């Protein structure tokens, strides 16, 4: 999912002055940023009542510290997930297997919750120590308590302390990366 903007966002380096130059530079900058390798995950979040939970496709994620064990995710302020992470002060990161390309396409808007069946958009989940949904078919999960929320303009970089982890499939299962899809996000 490429983010399209009407006017290129500055700053621009020396020599990029005219509108045309700025548009060209913007295209190159976008392609360079898309070239940054990344994984592809489902982020789980929950609010203060059981039916307020979600899973969302996300590729802006990274471990950010050894000690304490911190993991960060970049979430759009307009996303339902953003609201839930603040409300539940937690998030989960679900690492998917390489065959799960079809799954990430299903989690690009708020998911429909079936508490009786324990499913989100028909996909089974469990909950762990933070109460965030953990996708049953994930290779592994990282369950986090919110540590810090950094305002980054259109997104918030949420840092979470790792509260629990687990493998749900064999450790050598190949995991999904952005390059396994034809999708892009960012730039
Ligand atoms: C391949 C792909 C990667 C995405 N990566 C991110 C991301 O890193 N951060 C983000 O906020 N949204 C990302 N999105 C968009 C979200 O999945 C979603 O469409 C939007 O934020 C709404 O989520 P919501 O269900 O919480 O409202 C990505 C979408 C796709 C298709």
How many extended strands?
11
Text of the CATH class of the largest domain: Mainly Beta
Mean pLDDT: 96
Domains, number: 2
* SSE series: HEEEEHEHEEEEEE
**What is the helix fraction of residues, given as a range?**
10-25%
* Separate helix tally: 3
CATH architecture of the largest domain: Roll
Q: What is the rounded Rg?
A: 18 Å
Global morphology: globular
The fourth-level CATH homologous superfamily of the largest domain is Electron Transport, Fmn-binding Protein, Chain A
Please give a structural write-up.
With 187 residues, this protein is α+β, with helices and mostly antiparallel strands. It folds into 2 domains: 1-35, no CATH class; 41-180, Roll (Pnp Oxidase, Chain A). 16% of the residues lie in helices and 36% in strands. The N and C termini lie close together (10 Å). The mean pLDDT is 96. Bound molecules: flavin mononucleotide. Flavin mononucleotide is lined by residues 1, 54, 56-60, 74-76, 79-81, 108-110, 155, 183, 185.
Can you give keywords for this protein?
187 residues, alpha+beta, Pnp Oxidase, Chain A, 2 domains, seven-stranded antiparallel beta sheet, four-stranded antiparallel beta sheet, 3 helices, 11 strands, 16% helix, globular, binds flavin mononucleotide
Task: Sum this structure up briefly.
With 187 residues, this protein is an alpha+beta fold. It is built from 3 helices and 11 strands, in the order H-E-E-E-E-H-E-H-E-E-E-E-E-E.
